[in-house]
Amino acid sequence: MDKHHSQLALAKCSRHQRYNEWVFRDVPSDIMIVVDGGTFSLHKFPLVSRSGRIRKLVAGHRDSDISMIELLSLPGGAESFELAAKFCYGVNFEITAANVAQLCCVSDYLEMTDEYSKNNLGSRAEEYLEVVVSKNLEMCVEVLKQCENLLPLADELKVVIRCIDAIASKACVEQIASSFSRLEYSSSGRLHMNRQAKCEGDWWIEDLSVLRIDLYQRVITAMKCRGVRPESIAASLVNYAQKELTKKSTSWNQSTQPKVDVVSGSNDHEKVVVETIVSLMPVEKLVVPITFLFGLLRSAVMLDCTVACRLDLERRIGSQLDIATLNDLLIPSFHNAGETLFDVDTVHRILVSFSQQEDSDEDMDDVSVFESDSPTSPSQTALFKVAKLVDNYLAEIAPDANLKLNKFIAIAESLPAHARTIHDGLYRAIDVYLKAHQALSDPDRRRLCKLIDFQKLSQESGAHAAQNERLPLQSIVQVLYFEQMRLRNALFCSYPDDDHKPMHQSWRINSGAVSAAMSPRDNYASLRRENKELKLELARMRMRLNDLEKDHVCMKKNMEKSNSRRFMSTFTKKIGKLNIFGHSSSRESSSPSKRSQVTDSKLTERT
């Protein structure tokens, strides 16, 4: 279509143009045009007849025999001026998406408008831009690519904005058409979207990756305003970043250590790319892959991007930290030479952001407040996953000799206390840290071990901790104490008759029974002695219960006897009133005057 239209536009060349091409073939040149990148020996007449700028320069010169004109600021340089000169001479050439932006700019600079000649170069380029380019997304991208070297004139002529609007409109239309193609009827007859079908409306993602970052930013912004799906925007950002950042940077490859010996000047472009992509990310959660977010964060740290950029990435990562892996958290420390091997401060900020978002979610979710506190709620499940991830991270960074105790404790305390149902992972990480930092003082060891809730250790971890010489003496005593309570609880659970006994009684222990110096044999003897005492208490309670049951039976019999006597007395009274044998009725019938006297006396008493 564009080739046919170009040939059609060229066919409109007047006979005068073809005459110029034939006449000036053997005529010596009378003017020299100097542009950036070349010098052209031409003739005044064809240039003056089409270009208002050259006409003014020639007419304004005092010497009518002007032989040279300098146009050093001409957009597009020698290549653009050559096309304009061909048009002035009537030489046929094809207008394409690769040169239409140059023609628009050079025609504006040389004032090649219809004011000086009908169907001039400016109107021809504008017509091609409106009729051909704006209907094709790929051609719009190609024109934008050519505009990169023609700014700001191409922007002032609205060539850039027209291409951007056309791209956004076409992408939106493609998305709508793709959505309609995925509509289908279910078995119940309802219309629904088939999400498993491949979305074919995002083919433009690969085309946009050739644009410069400033123009790419404007295109994505226009798409977001037009309502393009956030998933498509995110996919385009991922594709663009991988092409721009993986060329020189190795921070995206997690299997290799990233190199920092790159010239700072070459990192300026990558820094702008990272900051721009972060600013263009959709606000919707789980739209951008978390591995991509961690890759951007590594690049942002390595390239020393702005604080706002890094904080935004940390906040986004914190919102979906429950799906992260240990390799994601292992961010190398790029700029802290001689410090820790991994960037602990960045991970700490991510964990703080996660905790703050968890607190805000619980405050906002007033309707399902009981569901959010339940162990099976999504927020609680995410909290458990993050706690396990943090424990593994602590165990991974613990062998670092440069890792300070305060930073280790800050990472461990970044999550609330109820996040860990089992403290085995935290105990393992602390044990690794104590093994790698044997020069820690006793107060620091006690401070570190205060993080562990020894009641939440499993039986295996508790047995290991009881024999761990790296733990402080106070911690070992606590481990033995809770191990005894666990053993006692297991012993009482073996008696089915003791189900009614409260749990806190079964956990009661003599404070002087356990000490750090007590041997296992003495420990076992003490437990057996306490077990006998508890059995005696149970026997006494059973005897008391039997006595209470006997008293209850006696009271029940007495109540039944008293109730039966009352029942008989009331029953005889009622039987007497019924006059079953008819004696009283005959008497009452024989003396009606007495009945009337009685009723009269009752009435007088009431009055």
Automatic annotation (TrEMBL):
Keywords from the UniProt entry: Coiled coil, Ubl conjugation pathway
Residues in BTB domain copies: 29-97
SUPFAM superfamilies membership: POZ domain
UniProt xrefs under InterPro entries: BTB/POZ_dom (IPR000210), NPH3/RPT2-like (IPR043454), NPH3_dom (IPR027356), SKP1/BTB/POZ_sf (IPR011333)
Bias (Low complexity): 587-596
GO BP annotations listed: protein ubiquitination
Pathway in which this enzyme or protein is active: Protein modification; protein ubiquitination
Residue ranges of domain NPH3 in the record: 202-486
Coiled-coil ranges (or none): 524-565
Pfam families on file: BTB, NPH3
Region (Disordered): 582-607
Protein family (similarity comment): Belongs to the NPH3 family.
Identification of the protein by name: Phototropic-responsive NPH3 family protein
Species, as recorded: Solanum tuberosum
Gene: LOC102585851
